[in-house]
Design brief:
mainly alpha, 7 helices, rod-shaped, cytoplasm, microtubule, microtubule binding, MAP65_Ase1_PRC1
Length: 254
């Protein structure tokens, strides 16, 4: 029956055997007695075994660390790929002849994915910043503020296109409101000209930006105030017309 010696028990003994033969010869030449030789050789074997065990433990820890880094790298690759819609993971097919080569391949792929993720996040940020700006102008930014906290959860191209469609809708809404503001201001201009009032003084009280045609405020609040002012001016106009009619009737009756 064959007995296979363990690596720890056999390998260091084979290494130490050569050293033992060499130093045994030296001791023989020196005239050391057998007891001293045996005690010294036992110490040498013990030291060899301790060194060997320490090296095995160091190698095992190194291997475990490599495996851990590889696993963490692959997990991050999977997470980034998932957040970007799964279209960005293109394995180079190289595992590596050893763990160090495999870790190097994983690191290269991970760095490339991180770069792509950063670029994608910048594109998302640009769109979300525009969404926030427009939504503030329109007076409704609550829903878009929530996107800032969740933008890393879904970085897919599908999500990006969805945000761009929402941005186009807001841009269209702003254009419509700008047209409505201009229409209301034209109406106010006519009413003020009839009454001889200063239009700028009136609209500055609603919102200062209405005086500057380049930075119109288009919030619903401003539009409602313009509507209300037009209604009030028309009411005053009707009252004056009624007074004039009443006065004309009174004159005819004289």
């Amino acid at each position: 029956m064959w007995i296979v010696a363990s690596p720890i028990a056999g390998f260091p003994r084979r290494i130490c055997l050569l050293k033992r033969l060499f130093i045994y010869e030296i001791w023989s030449e020196m005239g050391e007695n057998e007891d001293e030789k045996d005690a010294a050789l036992a110490d040498i074997e013990k030291e060899c075994l301790l060194v060997y065990k320490r090296k095995v433990e160091e190698a095992s820890r190194c291997k475990a660390n490599l495996l851990k880094e590889i696993a963490m790298g692959r997990a991050e690759i999977a997470a980034i790929g998932s957040s970007m819609g799964g279209q960005e993971i293109h394995s180079n097919g190289r595992v590596g002849e050893n763990l160090k080569e495999e870790l190097e391949n994983v690191t290269v792929q991970l760095e490339e994915l991180r770069r792509k993720k950063s670029e994608r996040m910048n594109r998302f940020k640009e769109v979300i910043d525009e969404l926030l700006s427009l939504s503030f102008q329109l007076g409704d930014s609550t829903d878009y503020l929530k996107m800032l906290g969740a933008e890393e959860a879904d970085l897919s191209l599908h999500k990006l296109e969805e945000l761009r469609r929402q941005l186009a809708q807001l841009q269209n809404e702003k254009s419509k409101r700008l047209e409505e503001v201009e229409r209301l201001l034209e109406t106010l201009t006519l009413l003020c000209s009839v009454r001889g009032e200063d239009l700028k003084d009136l609209i500055r009280g609603i919102h200062p930006s209405l005086v500057d045609s380049n930075t119109r405020d288009v919030s619903r609040s401003t539009l409602d105030k313009l509507d209300l002012m037009i209604g009030n001016l028309r009411g005053v106009k009707l009252q004056r017309m009624q007074k004039i009619q009443d006065l004309a009737v009174s004159l005819l009756e004289l």
